[in-house]
Structure to design on (137 residues):
């Protein structure tokens, strides 16, 4: 039996209206064989968690350029856990100061990718991390 493709939800939480980077990552993941759902801009954390549940995703990718990542990313993680989706891999990207990354990781964001990160790095990270999680059971 063939495994289903990795399913990824790309989301833009908050009032940030810039989504070029999110769309570039979404396309790269799709081109790498993943099934990608893009929520569009201005989503609430609750909307993102509801979409993740509905779409049965393995990964939620969050993008932010607005500076609200320290509030919004952890709230998305909380909303996912409230829906029983604590095992979903959450990654972030955008304009995020390096000093904010440890707090995001402590809140449950597995990895943060900054501007200029090759999309191949994101693809390989997702594959490697999901494989580790599958082996761990």
């Amino acid at each position: 039996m063939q495994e289903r493709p990795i399913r990824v939800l790309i989301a833009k939480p908050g009032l940030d209206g810039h989504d070029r980077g999110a769309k570039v990552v979404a396309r790269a993941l799709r081109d790498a064989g993943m099934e990608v759902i893009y929520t569009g801009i201005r989503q609430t954390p609750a909307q993102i968690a509801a979409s993740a549940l509905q779409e049965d995703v393995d990964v939620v990718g969050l993008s932010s350029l607005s500076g609200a990542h320290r509030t919004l990313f952890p709230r998305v993680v909380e909303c996912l856990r409230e829906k029983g989706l604590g095992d979903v891999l959450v990654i972030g990207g955008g304009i995020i100061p390096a000093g904010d990354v440890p707090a995001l990781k402590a809140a449950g964001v597995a990895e943060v990718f900054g501007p200029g990160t090759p999309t191949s790095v994101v693809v390989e990270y997702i594959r490697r991390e999901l494989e580790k999680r599958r082996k761990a059971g």
